[in-house]
Amino acid sequence: MSDKFISILAKISLAFIFLIVIAGSVVRMTGSGMGCPDWPKCFGYLVPPTDEEQVLWHENQEFKEGQKIIHEEKLLVATADFTTAEDFNANNWEVYEKHDYAVFNVYHTWTEYINRLASVLAGIPILLLAFFSLFNMRKRPVVNLLSFLVIFFMGFEAWLGKVVVDGNLIPGHITIHMMGVFVIMGLLITIISKLSVKTVCSFYDKKTRNLILFAFFITLSQIILGTQVRQEIDEITKALGYAARSGWVDQLGANFYVHRSYSILVLLINGLVVYRSKKLKLGLPFTESIVVIMFLEVLAGVLMAYAGMPAALQPVHLLLSVAMYAIQFFWVINFTRKKAVQLS
């Protein structure tokens, strides 16, 4: 199997990971994380309900074991296959014990369901990547290993997603869930880089390499700070609700102000990387892209902080930060590949 074909599969897989990030951020933006209160099914269905009547008790209705209804503000699970009689029979049901969330909102349900579908679709090219990499195992053993690590972490992410839902959106687990996405992206970028026949830079410069590593560390720590701020917002929304967006910022703690001020350092360090690359004519790729991304990222952050946290900007802000991470990880992996000239 050609390196080019496997590289294409890795790039498609990476594109789907970006799609998962967008879908996941829309879920959090809309508060749809519990739109499907169970996992991997949704209210016990492979295809979720489209109407509230489907999750309410009715007489002469068929239920399958595991299907769920909302009854008297509780989420109940059918204990077997049966058809309801004229009166509600509690013996046919048991209370869902993993959490006490019992709300149906069709928009939240389908938003979360589409998010899960995106993850399933992403699994297709990732499985194909691992399968076809087997044919190049002798030639590219590292690529083969990395491909199976991607599958492992996708499985971990799926398991963690179940834990998050079962725990009614455990804040710390959501942050770990996001970090898992970064690991998967890093593995895919490494695969793409190892299969590339092109050199990344015109020549090697040790000082710029060290600066890139520092910029990557600064950017990654800023993203982690951002997840902590997002975690605080999740707690605030539980208390104030999603209608009170304009008051969210006032309720945020020190993490928000550190995150806001830290962005100046991120801009300076990354700007220095771009400047040095241009000055020395290193040919570092994506320098123009990262400048645009940084500008838009800061603009989105400012608007979120001072314009009442507009919902549409939340996924944009996250997507831009993920794109910056991807470019910098690409730099880190590739910059030392060619050492034809080393400057003092």
Protein model, in words:
This protein has helices at 3-30, 106-133, 141-166, 171-195, 206-240, 248-251, 254-280, 287-306, 313-334, and strands at residues 62-63, 68-71, 74-78, 82-83, 93-95, 204-205, 342-343. Helix 4 crosses helix 9 (313-334). The chain has 9 helices and 7 strands. It has a 3-stranded antiparallel beta sheet with strand order 2-3-5, with no helix packed on it. Strands 1-4 form a two-stranded antiparallel ribbon.
DSSP, total strands: 7
Query: With helices defined by DSSP (H or I, 4 residues minimum), what is the helix count?
Result: 9
Proportion of residues in β-strands: 5-15%
* Radius of gyration based on Cα positions: 24 Å
Poorly predicted ranges (pLDDT <50, ≥5 residues)? Answer: 339-344
Fraction in helix: 55-70%
Side by side, the strands of the main sheet go 2-3-5
Shape designation = flat
Please state the average pLDDT score: 85
- Please write the string of helix (H) and strand (E) elements: HEEEEEHHHEHHHHHE
Largest sheet: 3 strands, antiparallel
- Termini Cα gap: 42 Å
Q: What structural class do the secondary elements suggest?
A: mainly alpha
